[in-house]
Amino acid sequence: MRIINTSEIEEIIYKSALKAGVTLTDSCKAALNCAYAEEDDGAAKFALKTLIENSRVAENNVMPVCQDTGMAVVIIEIGNEVYLEGMPLPEAVNNAVRRAYKDGYFRKSVCDPITRVNTADNTPAVLHTEICKGDRVKITFMPKGFGSENMSRMFMLKPAQGVDGIIESIVTAVREAGSRPCPPVYVGVGIGGSFDSCAFLAKKALTRDIGSRSDRQDIAEIESKALERINKLNIGCQGFHGKVTALGVSCEWSPTHIAGLPVAVNIQCHCVRCVKEVL
């Protein structure tokens, strides 16, 4: 049994939030550079160059890489041999977010859904916890802007719609989103589970490196075919048309009920921010 004080988790999330606010993931930076090299449409190529330069300036000057510094999404995988002591985990997470958004001068965007009164410190964070094997705690911090979040979709397909229906749902979500999620986008997809767990799978898919592939061949083919079709939509960077509408498609899956085929599509803008640490 390993004992970990939640104050240690708070400190890791604090540092992760500060880093994520100003830095794109390495795979995102690489994907944007590849998109720039591939694109030949003048307006889209100029827009990609601007996005790449913006990310460089933000990281070098420790400034927010996007004005929407997002709603904090925290995924914590806790080993079954870990005992957490100290303050409750949600309190530690929210303390970290509160401190980081203040110290990083990040925009506070969280408000009451009805009154629209801002909580003034970007809390509460969205916290997902999972129990896994071992004596480690894996922490993933992802700030999620809502220009892209608002474009996400949930499809409850009939089982007979199968793989073709899954791919069509992914492409439909991106097509209908158009330029609103600030493309080129990164598309996270959940397949299976239930209504609620499928949405989490889609969110979790966005924590993977852009360009990674599922270890299941049939799922990897869905990723590849969906990406190919999306990039034929001619939406392009920031809606200027062009070859690259999506940087990648990542799918996570789970067994589902015999009567259903849930498919969740969680869209991320070009500004992919995600920091992972292991304690």
What does this structure look like?
It is a single chain. This protein is of the alpha/beta class and 279 residues long. It is 39% helix and 25% strand. It has helices at residues 6-22, 26-38, 42-61, 89-103, 146-149, 162-177, 195-205, 217-230, and strands spanning 2-5, 71-79, 82-85, 126-132, 137-144, 153-157, 185-193, 246-256, 261-268, 275-278. Strands 4-2-5-10 form a 4-stranded mixed sheet. A 4-stranded mixed sheet has the order 6-9-7-8. Helix 2 runs antiparallel to helix 3 (42-61). The longest helix is centred in the N-terminal third of the chain and has 20 residues, at 42-61. The model has no long low-confidence stretch (mean pLDDT 97).
Layout of helices and strands:
Layout: E1 2-5, H1 6-22, H2 26-38, H3 42-61, E2 71-79, E3 82-85, H4 89-103, E4 126-132, E5 137-144, H5 146-149, E6 153-157, H6 162-177, E7 185-193, H7 195-205, H8 217-230, E8 246-256, E9 261-268, E10 275-278
Parallel strand pairs: 1-3, 2-4, 7-8
Antiparallel strand pairs: 2-5, 5-10, 6-9, 7-9
Helix pairs in contact: 1-4, 2-3, 6-8
Radius of gyration: 19 Å
The helix/strand order is EHHHEEHEEHEHEHHEEE
Sketch the major β-sheet: 4 strands, mixed
Measured distance between first and last alpha carbons: 14 Å
Indicate the mean pLDDT.
97
In one word, what is the shape? globular
Task: Offer a few descriptive terms.
single chain; 279 residues; alpha/beta; 4-stranded mixed β-sheet; 8 helices; 25% strand
